[in-house]
Amino acid sequence: MFFAKILLLCTVCALASATPQGFGVLGGPKQLEGQELVESQKTLQASLDKLAAGEGPYYRISRILSASTQVVAGTNDSYSVELIDRTGATKVCDVDIWSRGWLPNGIRVTFRCPNEPELIKKHNA
Ligand SMILES: *[C@@H]1O[C@H](CO)[C@@H](O)[C@H](O)[C@H]1NC(C)=O
Fold this sequence. Notes:
Blueprint: H1 2-18, E1 30-31, H2 34-53, E2 60-72, E3 74-84, E4 90-99, E5 107-112, E6 119-123
Antiparallel strand pairs: 1-2, 2-3, 3-4, 4-5, 5-6
């Protein structure tokens, strides 16, 4: 019984600590530099890897031109990035990663590439 209470308490704690992101301070986009830029590149890479392992698109990062992050309901990372497609061609695209990891399929990736319709893909965290 005691154990069950502790378990319940922990569940509540875990839920409480998982949600504040969604109710955090909302602010404008913040340009990323240095270590934060390195971390954001990992976020983008992880996302591209997940999509490539699924139904695509299939992109590799050539280089990130700029990146910014914003706290919304979750986190919204925006990239200007040179991508390499399967044919080895490069193109500069705007990519947004809207991350709400507590939702199923909570990562929403939007690709805006020149001469292509906007592409929106979702994947799990
Ligand atoms: C994320 O940021 C991009 C670029 O600033 C913006 O176009 C998009 O609407 C934002 N998405 C959300 C969910 O705030």
